[in-house]
Amino acid sequence: MIKAAVIGAAGYTGGETLRLLLQHPLVNAATITAVSSSHAGKPLASAHSDLWGYTDLTFVGELTSFENVDVVFLCMGHGKSRVWMSIHDVPDQVKVIDLSMDFRAMSADSPFVYGLPEKYRKQLSTSTRVANPGCLATSVELALLPLAESAALHGDIIAQSMTGSTGAGQQPIDTTHFSWRYSNVNAYRVFQHQHEAEIKQTLGVASLNFIPLRGPFSRGIYTTCVIPGEYDAQQLEQLYRVYYASHPFVVVRDAEPDVKSVVNTNMCHIGIVASESALLIVSVIDNLMKGASGQAVQNMNIMFGIDETAGLLTKASAF
Hints:
There is one protein chain. 25% of the residues lie in helices and 19% in strands. The protein is of the alpha/beta class and 319 residues long. It has 2 domains: 4-133 and 290-303, Rossmann fold, CATH 3.40.50; 135-287, Dihydrodipicolinate Reductase, domain 2 (2-Layer Sandwich). The chain is globular, with a radius of gyration of 19 Å. The two termini are 35 Å apart. The mean pLDDT is 91.
């Protein structure tokens, strides 16, 4: 049985990771270490109210030993994971999965592998250090990956992603307040979002027009990618179905994807529409699942050589 520790366990991604680990068939739930300096000594349900009656575990203020830890999930804010790694001597045999952006830039001297299973599954299977992709990046990358891998991605790419409020983290800010978010949409960090660099890195493109949008919902990402040019929709659907045939969490749909079909799941649904002058690819994911904690647990499964879908067969909020 796998023994896990979650650092930053009181936040959104920390809580989602805990929920998945607590019901994972190959994780020892009784030995999960949930670290939160702000909630030390309190039950997990003090931060995650849905866990009342589900577990008796309490938060601890610090991870003091790696003796009973096989894998560490870093669920802290950007910049904090690099600091944590610098002051903790993590044994080589203990696997680390970082959910921040701190280690996503791939280089020859970095021990971290970029954790997009649909491209790097082989490398992930032998790695002990993984940088989990960003939520917006995941939705765009999965939308365009088969084209990129077949050298068919060209032209002026426009990617637009509308994301739920939980993507901004648990700490309330002006643009996550219900009164502002409800019945409202706006663009932010246009052409300069922090996820743009990892998207370009993964897809191998130099040019990308990326437009993030704040949506009036709490969970989910709805991404549209538009590429000018003539494309055959049927050929592209076949290309995508063949590419994703061995990847259990990506599905090419006959009907246009919608957010509710994937919320609370680790799935990515893709839709393809082609006209005489442009191609539209729609990609939908749950930002806290396939965009964060779900993908992190998927990476854990791959790293430990177990069923990739273990602990991730959850039900969507379709109704």
